[in-house]
């Protein structure tokens, strides 16, 4: 049924709670009467983007120090005495500023990466923003849902300066997600109700090529050979208007923008995210459990490196220096989540608390 897919879809994008009232009764939804010391970012650390509950306005930002194995919660709120808003989706760091994209509130915050203090925001001209990618100090792209355009922004003036039209998409169902760059080209996976990767020429700010890779390409990384690896989710439900198929891991050759290899998984597998290590020669992804393989592999691994054991894995990242595996566990979408840490062999190192619905990560290096 479409209704059942919609519920799953909203969970994957907004970690929706069963009732907003129950969600707002949680500590993350109320003022903190006993503030804890804010851990200042170290030379290398991990920002954790916690979505919060859809409609509750309780998204938060956490900071984890791998050196001390400690986490600071709600660092944006503690530094600014203000909330991030509704459904934080991603974060990127450029020139010592962290850019936090909050898609439910249609805003992108710029914060000092060393103090968490807000320096500015892009708050007009955006429709459910998802990810941000810098082309230069004065130009960046912001992808969007429910819009068939990618926003062009000037980070210096915190303003939208134009849009990139995405061919074949309608405004009401448009969807663009993650971005990676090779030379002058930016590659974007089009996720919700889509099947394609698009290529943007940054000289002209126009889409110059489109490639079909499978139903709903959800996540994307770039390897050391400048090949794209794309993880699809297969559509999520039997009746999806763009199709329902087994999720797949797709290798795309950026030199001629063609599909070089497609490795199919099992119909109905849950595949929310794909990650790559610091040397960009080993892939990691969630396929119910966590799997890994070198980029030279031509077949999927038979066994996972980390089993979920009933946990709901929602996000994934790899320490670019140590190679440790970090998994975001959303628990039940209502209470605070967890950050699970493993070494590269899959041995548990520890667990710390996060905010509600931890999903995306951003490394401070």
Explain the overall architecture.
- The structure is a single chain.
- Helix content is 7%, strand content 44%.
- The chain has three helices and 27 strands.
- The strands form seven sheets. It has a four-stranded antiparallel sheet with strand order 3-2-1-27. It has a four-stranded antiparallel sheet with strand order 4-5-6-7.
- Strand 13 (185-189) and strand 14 form a beta hairpin.
Feature tags:
44% strand, 4-stranded antiparallel β-sheet, 3 helices, single chain, mainly beta, 7% helix, 27 strands, 365 residues
Short characterization:
This protein has 365 residues and is mainly β. It contains three helices and 27 strands.
Q: What sequence of helices (H) and strands (E) makes up the elements? A: HHEEEHEEEEEEEEEEEEEEEEEEEEEEEE
Radius of gyration using CA atoms only: 19 Å
Assign the structural class, choosing from mainly alpha, mainly beta, alpha/beta, alpha+beta, or little secondary structure.
mainly beta
First CA to last CA: what distance?
A: 45 Å
Q: Based on CA inertia axes, which overall geometry fits? A: globular
Strand content is 35-45%
Q: Percent of residues in helical segments?
A: under 10%
Query: How many helices does DSSP assign?
Result: 3
- Give the tally of β-strands: 27
Order of strands across the main sheet: 3-2-1-27
Largest sheet: 4 strands, antiparallel
Oligomeric category: single chain
- Spans of at least 5 consecutive residues whose pLDDT stays below 50 are 1-35
Give the rounded overall mean pLDDT. 90
